[in-house]
Amino acid sequence: DGGNDIRAAAIVGQLITTGGKISNCYVKNPTITPGEHVTGGIAGCVYDGTIENCYVVNSNINGSSGRYGYIVGDSRGDKSSTDRPGTVTNCYSDNTPLISDRKGNLSSVENKSAAQFASGEIAYLLQGNQQTDIWGQNIDNGETVQTYPVFSDAKVYKIYNSGCTHYGEFIYSNDANAEFYHEHSFTEDSNGFCTLCNGYEAAELVDGVYHIGNLGQLMWFANNVNTAHKVLLTADITIDNSVVWKPIGLQDGASNSSIF
Q: What is the pLDDT of residues 86-101, one digit of tens each?
């Protein structure tokens, strides 16, 4: 308690040493309300020093002066040549403000959702290129799954998926050799589009004839069948302005001689 000059945080109130560093720390559920001056989750203020590879979640952090943030409250460094800017890198929070300078402006620390924390993404990002395994998270074992990154040997790997846009370009797994696939889900109301990823439903091939009964199957045929075939349209199909439609043709640009 320094009266009107308080520096309050869960880890370090004030980091103002050249070369000083706080790395690989996390804070969960902090409540820091000194009422005056500079407050943060990891550090109240950082001048000259560095904060890296840290996260703060479920925070209740306040400061009446506006110099507060869920990572650091004051990173001083953009007001005059005498300022001593601190460095904050690869840090994450589940809320805003993320980091403020001495005037309360936000800086470059990333907000992430609860789903991103639970997925293993943040554990993967926190580990980064560090040579020693520090961060991990059990995300594959349903009995002991962990919601947030921890110091653990359950290493997290980035796994590229098989093309399901519902899950984005990749997911995360504790298995470095995991392959990611999903079963498409189609309903009577989905018009031939997967309810998970919006992928097309394959047309059914019956005795050498493709049966097409919805828009998704027609889109699938247009994108996947590159030779002439017989096609049976089993329903009226409407293509409206919500669909980017490319007329059916062969890969070399020639007309498709399929029989409808």
A: 888 999 998 776 677 6
For 139-147, which contacts have Cβ atoms below 8 Å and span 24 or more sequence positions? 139/172, 139/173, 139/174, 140/173, 140/174, 140/175, 141/174, 147/114, 147/117, 147/118
The helix or strand, by DSSP H or E, that contains position 93, with its residue range, turns out to be strand 92-93
- How far is 88 from 130, CA to CA, in rounded Å? 16
Helices (H) and strands (E) in the chain, counts: 3, 22
Give CA–CA dist 195/183, Å, rounded. 11
Task: Give the containing element (helix H, strand E) for 217.
Answer: helix 215-224
pLDDT tens-digit map of 160-212: 766 665 566 678 899 988 877 777 888 989 999 888 777 889 999 999 899 99
| Dihedral sign computed on CA atoms, order 68, 73, 76, 78 | negative
Q: Could you give the C-alpha distances from 132 to 121, 126, 127, in angstroms and in order?
A: 18, 12, 9
pTM over cut 0.70:
no
Could you read off the pLDDT of 116-142 as tens digits, one per residue?
Answer: 999 899 999 999 999 999 999 999 877
C-alpha span between 205 and 227 (Å, rounded): 14
How many other CB atoms sit within 10 Å of the CB of residue 59?
A: 22
Q: Is the pLDDT of residue 1 over 50?
A: no
- 32-48 in b/e form (b: 16+ CB < 10 A) is bebebbbbbbbbbbbbb
The CA dihedral of 100, 149, 21, 3, to the nearest 10 degrees, is 50
